[in-house]
Amino acid sequence: MNTTITCRKALPTDVEALYELIQAYALQGIMLPRSREALLRHIDSFVVAEEAGRLIGCGSLFRLGADLVEIRSLGMADGYKGKGLGTMIVNALIEEARALQVPKIMALTYAVDFFVKNGFSVVEKEIFPEKVWTDCVHCSKQHACDEIAVVKLLS
Ligand SMILES: CC(C)(COP(=O)(O)OP(=O)(O)OC[C@H]1O[C@@H](n2cnc3c(N)ncnc32)[C@H](O)[C@@H]1OP(=O)(O)O)[C@@H](O)C(=O)NCCC(=O)NCCS
Start and end of every N-acetyltransferase domain (predicted)? Predict the structure, then answer.
């Protein structure tokens, strides 16, 4: 049976499914963990993909400064990778950034090719002091960060 996949803003009722999706990646060391409380507090920043009422992907937008937002917590559920959903969610987040009139969108990632395919460029992470002072100071990997910074200019 073919079912439709939709992309929408997250709702408070998505918190548990979001928590489980993000926590599974956090345990693998490829995402920062987010508590249920933090997810609820920032639920408006999340976009989710859904199929037949099941949450199958997510991503969020975090403002780092007046002219910069970051894509965070981007992940698809097992069995749903490579189907264009990551691209769909990134495009939705880019549209949100545009609506906020923010000119730059960045991410710290291991999935470099995915972002390059979506029009991002690899840059030195040191060009984002805003990122270092909000998140990295709390990260256990801060002195040995192996994630790659990518950025896209939105005109
Ligand atoms: C990375 C991720 C979000 C991409 O979403 P997706 O729905 O699988 O990606 P799409 O189908 O939209 O795009 C697929 C393209 O991106 C590339 N890609 C997908 N995952 C990738 C990865 N981990 N590393 C490098 N490139 C990747 C593929 O090569 C593919 O290119 P192709 O279409 O030419 O074959 C998803 O694979 C995922 O959840 N990965 C685990 C969590 C993660 O690494 N999140 C990123 C944190 S910033």
Answer: 5-146
